[in-house]
C-alpha cells in the first residue's frame, strides 16, 4: 500500500516548521521580561523589609508605599501633572534647540571644535548650583523647573545630533558634491537621516534626566510639583509618601521612555531591523 509523498515536509522545511513555536516563545518572553523584572524587584524589596524588620522611616516596604500612594492619591496626581507639564515643556524646548544647534555644530568641523569645549564646560556645572540663581532671576514657581529640565536634557541631544552629522563618511560627501549637491543639501538629505538613530537614542536619555531637573528645581524653589511634595513629606517624616512620589516619577519616566522608543521604532526602522531579526534568529 502506497502513501502520499507530497504530505511529508522537505528536509529544508522541517527546521522552519519546528522553529516557529520557538520563535513565538522567545518573542513572548522578550515582551514579558521587563514586567517580570519589575515585579521581582518589588518582591525582593518587600521580602528584605519584612525579613530584616526595617522601619518605615528608614526604608518603607512597597506595600506601605502603595498604601500611602492610595491614601494621598489626589494630591499626588495633582502634583504629578504639574511635574509632567513642566518637564515636557523643558524637554520640548531642549529637543528643538538641541536639534538645531546640533545640526549647525555638526555641519562644520571648525564650529564643532570651537564650541565643544564650551559646551562641555557648561554641562559640567552642577545644575543644583544653577537652580538658586534661576530662582533669584525668575522667582519661585514653574519657570526655574522648566529651565532646569531644559538645561539638563539639552546637552545629550545636541552632542548626539552633532556627532551623527559630523561622522558622515567623507567619501559620501565627496560623491554628493561631485553630483552638484550644496552643503545644506548634503546635511538635509544625508546628515540628518544619518543622525536620526543618534537623535532618538539621546531622546530616551534626555527624557529621563529631564524629570531629574524639574524635580530638583521643585525641591529648591517651587511651591508645586512632586519635588515639593516629597520635600514636605520628608520634613513630616512621612517616608512612604515621599517614596510614593519617587515611584510616580519613575512611572512617568518609563512612560515617556516607551513613547520615545515607539517613535524611534517608527522613524528608524531601517537602522534597527537587523537587530530585530537577529534577536529571534533560530538554529
How do the helices and strands line up, and which of them pair or pack?
Blueprint lengths: L12 H39 L10 H10 L1 H34 L2 H16 L2 H12 L3 H25 L3 H9 L4 H39 L4 H10 L3 H29 L1 H11 L4
Task: Describe, in plain words, how this protein is organized in 3D.
Helix 3 (73-106) packs parallel to helix 6 (142-166), helix 3 packs antiparallel against helix 8 (183-221) and helix 3 (73-106) crosses helix 9 (226-235). The chain folds into 2 domains: 33-74, no CATH class; 81-279, MetI-like fold, CATH 1.10.3720. It is an all-alpha fold. Helix content is 83%, strand content 0%.
Q: Characteristics of this structure?
A:
283 residues; mainly alpha; MetI-like fold; 11 helices; 2 domains
